[in-house]
Known about the structure:
Layout: E1 12-15, H1 21-31, E2 35-40, E3 54-55, E4 59-60, H2 61-65, E5 71-75, H3 80-91, E6 95-98, H4 104-107, H5 112-118, E7 123-128, H6 143-149, H7 152-155, H8 170-193, E8 198-202, H9 203-209, H10 212-221, E9 238-243, E10 246-251, H11 255-265, H12 269-273, H13 280-285, H14 287-298, H15 303-312, E11 317-319, H16 323-327, H17 330-335, E12 338-343, E13 347-352, E14 357-358, E15 361-362, H18 376-382, H19 388-396, E16 400-401
Parallel strand pairs: 1-2, 1-6, 2-5, 6-7, 7-8
Antiparallel strand pairs: 3-4, 5-16, 9-10, 10-11, 12-13, 14-15
Amino acid sequence: MSALPAPLSGITVLDLTRVLAGPLCGAILGDLGAEVIKVEHPARGDDTRHWGLRIGKTETTYYNSINRNKKSLALDLSQEAGQAVAAAIAATSDVLIENFKAGGADKLGLGYEKLSDLNEGLIYLSISGYDAMGEEASRLGYDLVIQGEAGLMAMNGEMDQPPLKFGTAIVDMFTGMHAAQAIMAALIERSRTGKGRHIQLALFDCGLMLTAYAGLEALLTREEPLRYGNGHSSIVPYGVFDTQDGPIVLTVGNEAQYSRFCESVIGRPDLATDPRFTSNRLRSENRAELLPLLQDELSTQRRADLLVRLAANGIPCGEVLKLGEALTSDRATSSGVITLHSHPDAGDVHVLASPYRFDGERCPVRLRPPILGEHSEEILRDRLARTPQEIEKLINEAVVRSATP
């Protein structure tokens, strides 16, 4: 058995972010082995500690989804003593991530210019709603607003229905992923130069990136792309179909697959030779005629039997599961993505593990999502060499909150 993967072992990340994009970035770096120190308000903590279903006394489902593999330092950054603690940690950290309002970090004495003078190798990442160099730099960014403004809602949903948001905060999540990628690139560069970088990311920019090929098609044609719900703009049949006992996902990607589908799966070779449907282009143009015919055939058959025949004929397919079914499926359980961890207040709690594997080993959940202030004393003692008396003073002055599990 190889050692547990920790490619970023020895890297320290000071995470001053809250809500989702920045915390997800921190979780990714923590998954990869970095020590992530999450700074939170000592009274209320991260906003997401109050969103979703309650877990224990200070966590929620929302918070736990993106705060694994971190240590919680409950620190009041509005006090000079709290700012001094954060600056001292930054002086010996490799990475700092922040998503304060425009100018907020500078007001706290934690801006890039000041901290890079203390630590020239510091990689400092700032997340904002809009271009930090543009006219809207001071405007707050929210995932749902960005989904609307970036055209994502206009791409999503059914043709005869209003624009629709994605089921999760997809702009926040992709921004967090882009942030982690940029940080790792800067770490590689620093290994050559010894110097850090100031990386800036805007939610709106990341939202536009998500439009991908649909965005380029809109620019090319100067027309709004049609919305096809679970279907595809240029591949037919592709989407969700009802069977006798439940929905399936079906994706027929080429002419050979379509012929096998018609002949060997649904027993309708006539649909393969019908001149309206002999090519994918024709099937796309005549989808209104073809799709009801296919749905009629599929709705008379049992899902399990169909899936066996589809797989035997090399046609991509799968069940459409409810969320709970997917998370408790044999596939999810055997993969190791769903993990259980002991919690002092809530018993065993589920934590999603990282999707990464290195040399066959999944990056582990080393630390369950922390109680608010769970590691405050540890960080002050072990990282900053503060004495018990100094730590007690910070706690008594409400600069720091300590919570012992």
